[in-house]
Write a structure and sequence with these properties.
Layout: H1 3-23, H2 28-42, H3 50-70, H4 74-105, H5 110-121, H6 125-135, H7 141-169, H8 174-207, H9 210-230, H10 235-245, H11 252-277, H12 280-311, H13 316-324, H14 331-342, H15 348-370, H16 372-379, E1 403-406, H17 410-421, E2 426-430, H18 433-441, E3 446-448, H19 454-459, E4 467-470, H20 475-488, E5 493-497, H21 501-510, E6 514-516, H22 518-533, H23 537-553
Parallel strand pairs: 1-2, 1-4, 2-3, 4-5, 5-6
Helix pairs in contact: 1-2, 2-11, 3-9, 3-10, 3-11, 4-5, 4-7, 4-12, 5-14, 6-7, 6-15, 7-10, 7-13, 7-14, 8-9, 9-10, 12-13, 12-15, 14-15, 20-21
Length: 556
């Protein structure tokens, strides 16, 4: 069977299993692992191209960790505050220690127990963002705290990824460690210099072409990963650092939106390969151990986090909802275990064990997060032990926008003036990097991104927005904006722009609330002006003076 046919059959099987996972409302990651398990157990021929799957999975992991690094913007890390830092570090530390002790008690060796203990401590950023986002709770207090400590976990992950090459050498003398640290420092300094001096200067040039930006970021992420690999580190650490080096670019959200579908495709191969490496015969023998470790993650992790948050003064509902977000192990956990097996520290049995724990905990945590409100009502009277008498208020100020304005050009400038005069919280989305930089310097809330990209539109979280205005005169883009807006917030008012009567009628047929036609409005405005001042020179002087003032305001 040719590699192409093997690969096609594998993707077809993954699609069938994924549809079933979607039907029972489970994360598709479970479906991918089950696909590998089915293919490896019953249809071994279609996973015969191990090298191809291994290469694709490495690319997927590199892109995944590159995107994780891309979200580690210094401003975001600063905003997380002490609660995210304390909960992130505290939960990882306690879970790792407890997991290590349990693994030793279950008969695992010291080194496998360390790996498994660490793997149990990390939660899935991707799964939690998806589940919390689907509930519309990303901007809630527990949602923001969850995002905060998940990214704190990602920072800890960077340190672990850098430590693994040292463990792989088996020679931990001072000379070896010093040499590795020296190489790491040199690489980091060089990368810092390039990312802070050269990249910002060419960033706006690259951002003008989406195709060029897409190609550059892939080349940058994979290229830096390759450099780190050749220097003796692992690919994963290079990918993370490559993402962090671009985290301050205004185009980072656009990069993320463009690379997300590519990440999703290649990371499928990683999970399929993990499933294929599981021995179906071993699963039953591993199940008791997996259930004990899963109980630590599903029950122990939330209790650990609830205890920490209770001591910090948070209310029991916030603590419970935040605790449920750590009730699963992450894709990073599976990456660490896979790396441990690659460098000879772990057996295939340990890989199968942790993968099985991943299946159980991801499955279980989906329901815990999705039905956290209902579970809280059932358990409320028993949760008082996790709440101090003097709790802090959950009412913290959220970043909330009443209006999102797409397009900050000439027409958009007039809307900005209106919003400023009326003190209306608003967000400006534009595809011109220089204009976004200028608006940010003026203290305005902006997003750089292409409204034509549906993934980017979905990432904007339009659930709480009251009015959406697009001054972009493109019917297809405005149609996309309207579709996403109606799906996210059916009650929002959507105003768009059209150049022709045909486009305007089509947009009205689609259901938009109002279509701006600049030439009609301009003609009407001009007619009204001249109606008042047609034969008076003083009137023209007044209009000319007013027009020059408006032009000076709109210089950008």
């Amino acid at each position: 069977m040719s590699h192409f046919v093997e690969f096609s059959l594998l993707i077809a099987l993954a699609a069938v299993v994924a549809v079933f996972m979607r039907f029972i409302k489970q994360p598709l990651i479970i479906g991918y692992i089950i696909t590998g398990l089915i293919a490896g157990t019953f249809f071994a021929d279609i996973v015969g191209s191990g090298e191809m799957l291994s290469l694709f999975s490495e690319i997927g992991i590199a892109i995944l960790l590159f995107l994780v690094g891309l979200h580690l913007h210094p401003k975001n890390v600063k905003e997380f505050g002490s609660v995210s830092l304390i909960t992130g570090i505290g939960q990882v530390l306690f879970t790792s220690i407890i997991g290590f002790v349990i693994c030793l008690a279950l008969g695992l060796g010291t080194l496998p127990s360390i790996y498994v203990g660490v793997a149990l401590a990390f939660s899935s950023t991707i799964i939690i963002l998806k589940l919390v986002g689907d509930k519309g709770d990303i901007d809630s207090l527990y949602g923001r705290i969850s995002v905060g400590f998940l990214l704190v976990q990602d920072v800890i992950a960077i340190l672990i990824l850098f430590a693994l090459p040292l463990l792989a050498t088996g020679d931990l003398n001072i000379g070896t460690i010093s040499f590795m640290l020296l190489k790491g420092v040199i690489l980091m300094v060089a990368l810092y210099f390039v990312s802070h001096t050269i990249i910002p200067r060419v960033g706006n040039f690259l951002a003008r072409s989406q195709e060029l930006l897409f190609l550059f970021t892939i080349a940058w992420g994979l290229g830096i990963s390759a450099v780190f690999y050749m220097a003796g580190f692992n690919i994963e650490s290079g990918a993370l650092v490559a993402g962090i080096s671009l985290a301050t670019l205004p185009s980072r959200r656009e990069i993320s939106a463009r690379l997300t579908p590519l990440r999703d495709f290649f990371i499928i191969m990683f999970f399929i390969l993990l499933g294929a490496q599981m021995d179906f015969g071993n699963i039953l023998s591993l199940l008791p151990t997996a259930l004990i470790l899963s109980a630590l993650v599903l029950i122990g992790n939330p209790i650990i986090l609830m205890t920490i948050m209770g001591l910090l003064g948070y209310k029991k509902k916030t603590s419970l909802q935040t605790g449920f977000t750590v009730a699963q192990i992450s894709e990073f956990s599976l990456i660490v275990i896979a790396l441990g097996a690659k460098i000879g520290h772990l057996s295939d049995e340990v890989v199968s064990l942790v993968t099985l724990v991943g299946l159980i905990t991801i499955f279980g945590s989906t329901y815990l997060v999705s039905y956290s409100d209902l579970i809280y009502k059932k358990l409320e009277k028993y949760l008082s032990i996790f709440e101090k008498k003097n709790t802090r208020s959950d009412a913290q100020e959220d970043k909330h926008y009443d209006v999102i304005l797409f397009g900050a050009g000439r027409v958009g400038t007039n809307f900005q003036t209106l919003f400023k005069e009326k003190n209306i919280p608003h967000l400006i989305v534009d595809h011109n990097p220089e204009l976004v930089d200028s608006l940010e310097k003026d203290g305005l809330s902006t997003f750089y991104g292409d409204a034509q990209n549906l993934t980017f539109l979905e990432e904007l979280n339009l659930r709480d927005v009251k009015v959406i205005i697009s001054t972009i005169p493109d019917a297809e883009i405005n149609g996309n904006i309207f579709s996403v807006a109606r799906r996210e917030q059916p009650d929002s008012i959507v105003v768009v722009t059209a150049q022709t009567e045909k486009d305007a009628k089509a947009l009205y047929d689609q259901g938009v609330d109002y279509v701006i036609m600049p030439y009609l409005l301009g003609a009407q405005h001009a007619s009204d002006l001249f109606k008042q001042h047609l034969f008076t020179r003083d009137g023209y002087d007044m209009m000319r003076h007013h027009h020059l003032n408006e032009l000076s305001k709109n210089r950008h």
